[in-house]
DNA sequence: GATCCATTTCTATAATTCCAAAAACATGGA
DNA sequence: TCCATGTTTTTGGAATTATAGAAATGGATC
């Protein structure tokens, strides 16, 4: 991932409505949601919603597919992981003995 | 984490200079770096750097401590993990059988 | 062709970004 | 103590960029 893509992805999420949209799509899973469902769930006018969805899709964090007259959106998990990897690249100079906090999920979730 | 804090953290990273600063601090680990070091490494004027560091510190992603006349900054890993957890909350409706991509690091790094 | 869903245009408002200059603050000698 | 020096922050103001939503447009379905 390059810095420009990372900034674009972060900027896409750095807005109240878009963050709410993204989180809803994360919860919806691979199936995603149709634009109308998002608009109703969040109470966002169609024009505004479309503007935000375009920003999210352009960032790569959200995928778009057309289903007849419906526009379906879903979260792209691969893109999010690429972003997180970029943010934590070379964490603590890659010295894992110093840097336990980097991957707490491993520490927490590996069965003993 | 609440939406306002999340937006603030994401907005803090959604700027080229601040993202570069943050990544440098991540690499520097808990020891962090002094403002002057950051300015020299990235070629950012002092006034601009101070403005960006203030934004990062206010977001909680970066910690600040005064050491005599030096200002030392370091990445707050706990804050970053809270942000990531917020972004992936209830991923795929918490149905892990559907949602492997949510924690690929576990899949990758658990010793067989 | 009427209806429904979504997107594009458009305009006004608001927020961000940059950095030079000045100010604030700490330190270590005259 | 007072001053010179080095580090960082604040101030101020111009240019850029983002935002919201009404109105108009574009496609798909029946």
Q: Would you mind describing this structure in some detail?
A:
The structure is a homodimer of 112-residue chains. By secondary structure, chain A is an alpha+beta fold. The first copy, chain A, has a single domain (3-109), classed as Winged helix-like DNA-binding domain superfamily/Winged helix DNA-binding domain (Arc Repressor Mutant, subunit A, Orthogonal Bundle). Helices cover 56% and strands 12% of the residues of chain A. Chain A has a 3-stranded antiparallel β-sheet. The longest helix of chain A is centred in the middle third of the chain and has 14 residues, at 46-59. The N and C termini of chain A lie far apart (34 Å). Residues 104-112 of chain A have low confidence and may be disordered. Chains A and B meet through helix 1, helix 2, helix 5 and helix 6 of A and helix 1, helix 2, helix 5 and helix 6 of B. Chain A binds a DNA duplex (30 and 30 nucleotides) through residues 11, 15, 17, 34-36, 39, 45-54, 68-71.
SSE blueprint and pairings:
Two copies of one chain form a homodimer.
Chain A: H1 3-13, H2 16-28, E1 33-34, H3 35-42, H4 46-59, E2 62-67, E3 70-75, H5 77-87, H6 104-109
Antiparallel strand pairs in A: 1-3, 2-3
Helix pairs in contact in A: 1-4, 2-4, 3-4
Chain A binds a DNA duplex (30 and 30 nucleotides) through residues 11, 15, 17, 34-36, 39, 45-54, 68-71.
